[in-house]
Amino acid sequence: MAPSKPPKAVLFDIGGVCVLSPLEAITTYENKNQIPSNWINFAISRSAPNGFWQRLERGEIKMDDHFFKGFNADLRNEKLWKEYHSNFRNSKKKLKDVANPTQLGDHVSLKAEAANSTPTDQDRGAHSSGMSGQESPERRREGDGQPSLSKLAKDTTIGDPVSIESEDVAQGAGSDTASTSRQSMSPSSPSPPEATTTLNSLPPLPNIDAESLFWSMMAHSRNPDPYIFPALLRLKQIPQKERPIVAALSNTTIFPPDHPYSRLKHAPESDPRSHFDVFISSAEVGLRKPDSKIYKLAVEKLDKFDKEHGGDGVKAEDCIFLDDIGENLKTAKGLNMKTIKVVLGKTWRAVKELEQETGLDLMDDNTRRSKL
Q1: Contacts of 3 (CB under 8 A, 6+ apart)
Q2: CA angle, residues 202, 205, 207, in degrees to nearest 5
Q3: Which of 209, 222, 246, 195 is nearest to 120 (CA)?
Q4: Mind listing the pLDDT tens digit of every residue in the chain (372 residues)?
Q5: CA-atom Rg of the chain in angstroms
Q6: I want to staple 22 with a disulfide (CB 3.0 to 4.6 A). Which of 217, 280, 321, 365 is the partner?
């Protein structure tokens, strides 16, 4: 059944929606290095609004040694370490209730990897070809005509991580940085610290290689989601006048122009922006979700695009927004946007809901037979 009023624009988050969530890599890192569950996400979220992660995603600092040292310091904050343990001891609270997942970017991982904690060249993104072997069969389907990571994934990182480079980024290493972030807490219950721990006798802060962690997150989020990414491609291939505007609204980071992940290193057709009519990157506009200002900016850009292409304009209520983070969706709802919650491991359901909202066929036959 066709919807009574189909949306004029569809806004996609990137990390945890179009591509896999970098938060999955966080859980993998924690499991492998015996770090208390959700400590990393807790530390990042509680460092907001001016932690190094948040500043990177707003494009305020460069992705260089200064960032990695600051990011490491945020992960070794003794005050937050005490707060983390104190919250666990309070039986009336759960960690997912006290940490704001929207400050990072995405979900948490389902399986561990066998990578060394010491950053290798591949960890640091030295070889983009090294990403191809990281996709598991259950996370990605093979399909005729479906692009490889050379499309969206080549310049995609977190979360909301996809990493996008603005064309006017200054040349040279250490240029402005930005990468997507996805922001939901782990779907599994955290493992509490020992009950006998007191504020005066905390276990030592875990040693975290912030740079290795960061690049593992970026690498993981270069893998397309097996359901939403193909749906995005099908939607974009429909003639402009027969479909809604296709847009991205993502918390991102910008890689230095000399880094292999930088979109400036690749041909224009491999730029993830090629999959969207409008692209709003947090690091390029200086705003992050869930700040309402970035949503309003997105509507302004959609309205301009629509009028330039013969339309009568776009308002917030004409948009539908897909995200995996509740706080991001809450802001969108507050502005009268329709929303679709993307659930880890069940992303095909979001595609089904998007089909219902748009009245368009966005699944291939194999997916429809297996999931519906």
Answers
A1: 356, 357, 358, 359
A2: 155
A3: 209
A4: 567 799 999 999 999 999 999 989 999 999 999 999 999 999 999 999 999 999 999 999 999 999 999 999 999 999 999 999 988 756 445 555 544 444 554 333 222 222 333 334 443 443 333 333 334 434 444 444 444 433 443 333 333 444 333 333 333 333 333 344 343 333 344 454 544 445 567 899 999 999 999 999 999 999 999 999 999 999 999 999 999 999 999 999 999 988 888 876 666 666 778 899 999 999 999 999 999 999 999 999 999 999 999 999 999 999 999 999 999 999 999 999 999 999 988 999 999 999 999 999 999 888 787 776
A5: 20
A6: 217
